[in-house]
Structures are given as C-alpha cells and as structure tokens.
Design a protein that fits this description.
The complex is a heterodimer of chains A (117) and B (111). Chain A is an all-beta fold and 117 residues long. Chain A is built from no helices and eleven strands. Chain A is globular. Classes of the chains: A mainly beta (117), B mainly beta (111).
Chain lengths: 117, 111
C-alpha cells in the first residue's frame, strides 16, 4: 500500500510554455502533499506543502506565481510550472503524507523530469 | 530551524562487507523523527529505516541498522552484508515540522 504516482514521468517543453505535473495517492487519502525539486547529484529541496482545500505553503525563495500548486482532492495535487525557462529544468518529486500512526512518513512519487528548451 | 549534515559525499564497500554512513542533525523541535532514504538510479525514493527520537532503542530493518546518539545529534546508518543492489544515493532526513534532507552519500558496492 501507500503508492504515489506522478504523471508525466518526463516532459520536454518550449521556453515560455506552461507544464502541469500531477501527483496522485493511489490507495490512500493524503491530506498533505509535498513538492520537491532535485538537481543532478544534489539533494531534494522542499518547494511547497500542499494541503487539500487550502492554499499551498511555499518555502522561502520559491516563486508561488511561477510554481502553481493545486490540491483539489484528497488524492490529487498538481504543480504547474508557468512560463517555463531552461533554468526550470529539473527533476520534480512529490510525496504524500499517509496520516494516522505513520503520519510523519512521506511516500514518494517516482518523479518527473522536466526539460525546457 | 532544522539542518542535516552528511559529511561523506561518497563511500565504497566490498560486497558482503559492512559500511557505515554518517549523519548529524540539528533541530529545535522536541518531538522529531529521523529517516534514511535510498535513491537508486531510477530516482525513486525508498524508505530504508526510521527512528522516533523519543525511542532510545536503535531501529533495525534486516541488514540495516542505525546508531542513534540523541545527545550528540548523530544518526548513522550501518549496512551489513552489503549487496550490489545497495548501491545508490543515501539521504539522511529529519522531520520536525517538515522533512529536511542531507546532501546525500553515494554508496558504491564493489564485487
């Protein structure tokens, strides 16, 4: 159990376009989802925390108008990279909090590789 | 604020041998959790082991065990009987009010 999926797994887009990445908890309800960014050979950096039905909380230095997060249901959160530029190329990973006795454990999606040309 | 430090960018171990990955952390939270995650080349994050800070007993999961020294804020991972499939990037992480990762340690396993 506790499977998280992401779609797409990789995407290539032109500079100036917007890209939407979906994160789904497949077999549990996730009141909280998290979005991370990872550059090659580096660690995961938390971008924002997404709570169902409310606005996302962004980490310092993350542009909320550029990285739009929507958590419309207990099983789906989306990250939209607006007006993408080559420097936005990265690996984006989502995770979901299962709650309950494992409330602090996060289950990670497989990641989405974004390449902006 | 939370910080996690992994001072070993890379480690190597011979197959079937034991290796220890180091991690130190700092947190102002009184209730927190510590984790070791494995990230293989597929980049899927896999939970290796977790430790509740209020528990004195070191966590163990098969060949993986931790040495949790709360006063020293140290949380090292020991991998016994290393296997080729253990080769990956390993991240230490702490959770107080959010999950904070260390820089990672690349583990290479030699056959």
């Amino acid at each position: 159990g506790a499977v998280v999926s992401q779609h797409p797994s990789w995407v290539i887009c032109k500079s100036g376009t917007s890209v939407k990445i979906e994160c789904r908890s497949l077999d549990f309800q996730a009141t909280t989802m998290f979005w991370y960014r990872q550059f090659p050979k580096q660690s995961l950096m938390l971008m924002a925390t997404s709570n169902e039905g409310s606005k996302a909380t962004y980490e310092q230095g993350v542009e909320k108008d550029k990285f739009l997060i929507n958590h419309a249901s207990l099983t789906l959160s989306t990250l939209t990279v607006t007006s993408a530029h080559p420097e936005d190329s990265s690996f984006y990973i989502c995770s979901a909090n299962a709650g309950g006795h494992r409330g602090n454990e996060q289950f990670f999606g497989p990641g989405t590789r974004l390449t902006v040309l | 604020a939370q910080t996690v430090t992994q001072s070993q960018p890379e480690m190597s171990v011979q197959e079937a041998e034991t290796v220890t990955l180091s991690c130190t952390y700092d947190t102002s939270e009184s209730d927190y959790y510590l984790f070791w995650y494995k990230q293989p080349p597929s980049r899927q994050m896999i939970l290796v082991i977790r430790q509740e800070a209020y528990k004195q007993q070191n966590a163990t999961e098969n060949r993986f065990s931790v040495n949790f020294q709360k006063a020293a804020k140290s949380f090292s991972l020991k991998i016994s009987d290393s296997q080729l499939g253990d080769a990956a990037m390993y991240f230490c992480a702490s959770y107080g009010n959010k999950l904070v990762f260390g820089a990672g340690t690349i583990l290479r396993v030699k056959s």
